[in-house]
Each structure stands twice: as C-alpha cells, then as structure tokens.
C-alpha cells in the first residue's frame, strides 16, 4: 500500500472515530401544564366524601406526582370551567393553577407565583360530586420553572432558585425570562410551562429548549 | 457672589436644563387580536343575504379598518366556536384568523402566516344567519407584525418585510422573534399580537414593547 492509500485509509478511520465523539446535550425537554388542582385531605373529604381515595390514572414525569381520574368544576364571579383535573398526591394546602386565558372567563386576577407561594392569592369555589367549598386563597398562574437534579444544576452552571432565560427556536420562537430553577436530589430534568406559553411559542410535548441565562 | 456660590448656581441651572432634554421614545404600543374573520362580498351574500351591508360598530387603530356588529360560528371537524367577530372592510378573499388554542377545539392545524398568505391553508365551515359556507382555504394563525409609517421605519432603522425581535418587560417578559415589519404610507404605529401571545407574556392593551432586532 502506497503512501497515498495509507493516508486515505487513516483519514477515513479518523473521520469515522470523529463521528463517535458525542457533543454534550444541553437541551431540556418541555412539560406543558394545563389548568389543574392540588387538594388537601380536608378538601378531598368535603368534595368527594370522608376518606375518599383519589384514583391515580397516570404517573407524571416528576417522581411521585400523578394525574387523578377525578376532576372538579371551578367557579369564579364571572364564569365556571368544568373538568379541571386533580393532580396527586394530596398537599398541605389546596392550590388551583389556572391560565391567564382562564382569568377572563372566571372573572378573577390570579398572580404569577411559584407553586406553594399562596399568601395573598385570590380564592375560588370548587364544586365536587359530594359538596362544594370556597377556598379562601390558592389561585395562581404558575411561574414557569425548570426541574432538575443537583448534578444537572452543576452541569448547566445554575443553582436552585436562580431565574434564567430560556430560548425557543422556530418561526414562533423567542425567549422567556424569569424561569425559576428548581433543583433537588429527586427531580427529573424538565421545563414546565403552561398551555398559554406553549401556544404563544408553538411548543409541543416533544419540544426542547435551552438555557441562555 | 463667591466662586463657590457661582459654581452651585451654574450647576443647578445645568441640571435643570438637563431635565428638559427629551429622550427619543422608541416604545411601540401593542394591539391584541382575538380570533376574527375577514369576508369577501360573495361570502357576505351567502351568509347574511344578497347585498347585506356589514355594520360598523368601532374603528380599529389601522386607518379604514373596523369591527362589525356581525359575528359567525366557525366549525371544524372536532368542534365549533360561536360569536367570532367580523372585521371590515370586505376583502378579495375571506380569511379566518384563529388562535393556536382554538386549533385543539376545532380539530385543525392552522399555519402561522402573514395576512393574505392563504395558499395551501386549511378551510373551515362558516355559519351565518342566512346560510353556511365551506371555505376551501383561509384559516391562519396570524404571524405577529408591527404596522408603521415609512417615517417610523426609518427612525427604527428597519424596512418593510424585515423580521425583527421584540422585547417585553415584566415577570412574564421575554422576547418574540420573527415579528414582521409592515411599513407603508398610511399605517399607525402598532405591534399586533394575538391573545395567546399576550397572555403568555402578560401583555395588556396598555403595554408597550421595543424592537431589539
């Protein structure tokens, strides 16, 4: 084999090996949330009957979280929305996460808040098969956020609680600022936005985003 | 008056004058569009009766454009939406501008297009008081755009047809890319987005945006 052929062979080998080099993947899968409800045990009792067990129908991507068979009607001063899904497990305090779009229909102003930040938020009436209750507070528009493990936080160079900007590609693309990082030992990597935010940027359940800070 | 007092006096004068210097305002008002319909004369005839005149109830910000008293029901393969507003004046071809949110309810996939770019877009059934018609095409999600005069285009350093990025401030802020500049001699300065895009970024009719390119 002459020098020329040896060179070609070597080049081919190097190119082939090069093809195996993996570029680190910094893309983040998207989870799109529709309006939903988290309930306390007391409120489950009032709406479905004492001791009623919520029925899991589907695990969600975050460990331990699931969608329930049960739904409720939520009623504000101007209108009602039926078939709003309950997510489990039960929580210390009930919380209703709605869309900005829903605020007009229900006739209430919900603030953009992180899950659990319920101080001073408006209330709403929940109607179930065995009763209805008026929540004194707990209606929010969920602030977009990214769940991730502590290892991923290190890999992305971010920390729990930090606000980052995310980039969405495509004709309807752009950036969303103030996306909260929620990093802990158990979380699965996923960026949570609601259907308003998904529709405005044409994001689908298969979409991925990147952090641009 | 000593040197010190003279200096203080002069400083005060300069500061006062400085306060009068006007910073040029590069902010752009926002117009938020809900789903709506533009109709051809033939389609008005079919839906409302031969020669029926559409009734103007409100001028829109763009010269010559107005909201009509009349509404229609739009029907896709999966569902219908009632009370969809007709905007005047009549056009050469009917066009139905819906939201991404509506696509799920109606059961159709509308592409993001500039007004008038109807080639290959899906059709829809329109139901009026005197008849219904099946449009062969014309359903779009309006691509966000900024109307402006040629003078404003020059001031912003953009040209008709250019795609720019806009910046929205606030907790739910961010940027929208691919906003089309529509500059001509008659347009009023206004950035048109739809309710999905407004809700995702918490924009209100009083909001302003800026071009960041």
UniProtKB/TrEMBL annotation, chains A, B:
Domain of life: Bacteria
Species annotation: Desulfitobacterium dehalogenans (strain ATCC 51507 / DSM 9161 / JW/IU-DC1)
Biological or metabolic pathway of the protein: Polyol metabolism; 1,2-propanediol degradation
Role summary: Involved in 1,2-propanediol (1,2-PD) degradation by catalyzing the conversion of propanoyl-CoA to propanoyl-phosphate.
InterPro entries: PTAC (IPR008300)
Record's keyword terms, sorted: Acyltransferase, Metal-binding, Transferase, Zinc
Membership in a protein family: Belongs to the PduL family.
Pfam family, one: PTAC
GO molecular function terms attached to this record: acyltransferase activity, transferring groups other than amino-acyl groups; metal ion binding
Protein name, entry field: Phosphate propanoyltransferase
Annotated PANTHER family: PHOSPHATE PROPANOYLTRANSFERASE
Enzyme Commission number(s): 2.3.1.222
Cofactor(s) named in the record: Zn(2+)
Reaction catalysed by this enzyme: propanoyl-CoA + phosphate = propanoyl phosphate + CoA
């Amino acid at each position: 084999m002459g020098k020329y052929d040896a060179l070609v062979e070597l080049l081919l080998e190097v190119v082939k090996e090069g093809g195996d080099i993996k570029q680190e993947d910094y893309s983040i899968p998207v989870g799109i949330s529709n309006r939903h409800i988290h309930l306390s045990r007391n409120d489950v009792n009032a709406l479905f009957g004492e001791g009623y067990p919520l029925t899991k129908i589907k695990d969600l991507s975050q460990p331990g979280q699931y969608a329930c068979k049960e739904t409720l009607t939520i009623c504000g001063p101007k209108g009602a929305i039926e078939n709003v899904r309950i997510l489990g497990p039960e929580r210390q305090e009930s919380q209703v996460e709605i869309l900005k779009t829903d605020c007009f229909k229900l006739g209430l102003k919900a603030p953009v808040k992180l899950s659990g930040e319920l101080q001073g938020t408006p209330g709403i009436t929940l109607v179930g098969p065995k009763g209805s209750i008026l929540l004194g507070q707990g209606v929010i528009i969920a602030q977009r956020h990214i769940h991730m493990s502590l290892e991923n936080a290190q890999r992305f160079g971010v920390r729990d609680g930090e606000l980052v900007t995310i980039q969405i590609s495509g004709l309807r693309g752009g950036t969303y600022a103030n996306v909260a990082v929620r990093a802990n030992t158990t979380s699965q990597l996923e960026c949570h936005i609601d259907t308003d935010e998904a529709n405005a940027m044409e994001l689908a359940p298969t979409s991925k985003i990147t952090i641009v800070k």
